[in-house]
Amino acid sequence: MVEEFNITKHSLVPEHVKLKEEEVKSLLEEINIKIDQLPMISKSDVAIKHLNPEVGDIIKIIRDSPTNIKQIFFRVVVHG
User: For domain 13-78, which architecture applies?
Assistant: First the structure.
């Protein structure tokens, strides 16, 4: 039996988290932008498939940094 490779466990793939509705509202107010001003990530991106994303969801990407403890990025899900 062939074992399926889990890309989310790879050391070079940062943690991806789908934000809840209230978190999205808070984020957009905090940084004073509209959702369409965020960078995009494809719904078919293998790093977020396990989150079952829908178009318009916001994904928080948490990367380890050699000069900082963590770097946080946000992406809006688009068709892919």
Answer: Alpha-Beta Complex (3.90)
